[in-house]
From TrEMBL:
InterPro entries membership: DUF2804
Species this protein is from: Treponema bryantii
Protein's recorded name: Uncharacterized protein
Pfam families reported for this sequence: DUF2804 (PF10974)
Lineage of the species this protein comes from: Bacteria, Pseudomonadati, Spirochaetota, Spirochaetia, Spirochaetales
C-alpha cells in the first residue's frame, strides 16, 4: 500500500538556494520560499526579480450546522483578491461576496505562529487569523449586500483544546527541484454562526481546515482542488486533494494530499480529477494506488472571470457531495455516501 512518511519540519524551508523537500508533521516558524537559486530555466537572476513570481493563497473551509463555505485570499503582489462564499445546507442557496484589495507590502503573512490576513473595507470586512502557536484559527466577516444578495455576518473559530487539530507541511518541487511549492495544512473543530440580514443565530459546532500555499508560479497555471468535511458514524473526517500543472514530476513522493480522521493524518497519493460530462456534472477523483475512488456530484456551482490588466483568472467553486471510498494508513476503509464538500477549479494567467 502507498506510504509517504511524515518527518520533523525544518527551521527554514530554503537554505543556500535549495529547498528542504518532504512531508512534515507540524509546521516551520515561517512559510517562506524566497531565495531559490535560478528558479526559472536555470538562469540566475537577482532574487528580487524571481521573488515576484511567488504567489500566495490562503483558504479557510468551514462546515457548521446550517452552512458550509470557503473564504480565500489571493496575494498577487500588485493587488489582492478576497472572496467568501457559503451555502445553506438545507436549501442549497449560495451567498457570494468579492473584494479587490489595493497594493500593500504583503497580503498573506509568512509567520505561522500568529498572523492576520484581512480586507478592512466597510462593505467587505473579511479576516482570517491564527495565533497561540498556530493552535487557534478564526474567520470573521461582515459584508453588505445589494440588490442581488443580503447583508451577512459571522464568525468561525477553533477552540484551544482540540483533539481534531493537526498541522502538516508539504514542500514539493514545482515541478522541478529548482522551484518549490510550500503548503501548510491545518484541520480543526470549530464553533460559530452565520447571520443573514441581522437575523438571530446561535453558535453551532462544526469542522474546519485552513490551507496556506506559496508557490513559484508559472505564467499560466491550472489547478483543481477537492475539500471533504463532515462527520461519518461518529468520526470527524476532513480531506484535501489537489492537482495542478505545477505538480512535482515525482508526485508519488511529493504532493500535499492528506486525510484526517479524528485527528490522525494519512498522506494520500496523487490524484486525477476528470469531469467527462461537464464541469457541472459528476467529477471522477481517483489515484493509482487504490486508496482514493470518489465521485463528486455538484449541487450548486459559482463561476467567476476576472480581467485586470496583465491578470486573468477564471474559476469555478462548487458545493456538492462525495461518494466512494478512502483508505487510511492503517488500511481502514472509509465509505462515503452523500458526504458534504466543495470543489474548486481555477485558471490563472499572470
Amino acid at each position: 500500500m502507498y506510504s509517504r512518511q511524515f518527518c520533523e519540519p525544518p527551521e527554514q524551508l530554503v537554505q543556500n538556494g535549495k529547498a528542504h523537500f518532504g512531508s512534515f508533521d507540524g509546521v516551520s516558524p515561517a512559510i517562506d520560499i524566497r531565495g531559490m537559486r535560478a528558479p526559472y530555466a536555470g538562469v540566475p537572476v537577482p532574487s528580487i526579480i524571481s521573488n515576484l513570481r511567488i504567489k500566495s493563497r490562503l483558504e479557510y473551509i468551514f462546515s457548521l450546522k446550517d452552512f458550509i463555505g470557503l473564504c480565500q485570499f489571493y496575494d498577487f503582489k500588485m493587488l489582492g483578491l478576497g472572496e467568501i462564499i457559503f451555502w445553506n445546507k438545507e436549501t442549497g442557496k449560495k451567498y457570494v461576496y468579492h473584494t479587490i484589495m489595493s497594493p500593500r507590502r504583503r497580503f498573506v503573512p509568512v509567520l505561522t505562529t500568529r498572523g492576520i490576513c484581512a480586507c478592512y473595507r466597510k462593505a467587505r470586512f473579511i479576516k482570517i487569523s491564527w495565533g497561540r502557536q498556530h493552535k487557534h484559527h478564526a474567520l470573521t466577516f461582515k459584508v453588505k449586500g445589494d440588490n442581488a444578495r443580503p447583508d451577512a455576518e459571522g464568525y468561525v473559530y477553533s477552540p484551544i483544546q482540540d483533539d481534531m487539530h493537526t498541522d502538516a507541511l508539504f514542500v514539493c518541487p514545482s515541478p522541478a527541484s529548482s522551484r518549490c511549492s510550500a503548503t501548510w495544512f491545518s484541520s480543526m473543530k470549530t464553533m460559530g454562526h452565520i447571520a443573514i440580514n441581522g437575523e438571530a443565530s446561535q453558535d453551532s459546532q462544526g469542522l474546519g481546515m485552513m490551507i496556506l500555499n506559496r508557490t513559484y508560479f508559472k505564467f499560466h497555471s491550472k489547478n483543481s482542488t477537492a475539500y471533504g468535511i463532515g462527520n461519518l458514524k461518529g468520526k470527524n473526517i476532513v480531506f484535501y486533494l489537489n492537482t495542478s500543472n505545477m505538480d512535482a514530476a515525482a508526485s508519488d513522493s511529493y504532493n500535499s494530499n492528506v486525510l484526517v480522521v479524528d485527528g490522525k493524518q494519512t498522506a494520500l497519493p496523487p490524484v486525477y480529477m476528470t469531469h467527462p460530462f461537464g464541469i457541472d456534472k459528476n467529477w471522477i477523483i481517483q489515484d493509482t494506488e487504490s486508496m482514493i475512488d470518489l465521485t463528486f456530484t455538484p449541487l450548486s456551482v459559482n463561476s467567476r472571470t476576472l480581467n485586470l490588466i496583465a491578470l486573468r483568472t477564471n474559476y469555478y467553486t462548487m458545493y456538492g457531495t462525495f461518494e466512494g471510498v478512502l483508505l487510511t494508513s492503517d488500511g481502514e476503509k472509509i465509505t462515503l455516501k452523500n458526504f458534504p464538500g466543495l470543489l474548486h477549479k481555477g485558471m490563472l494567467r499572470l
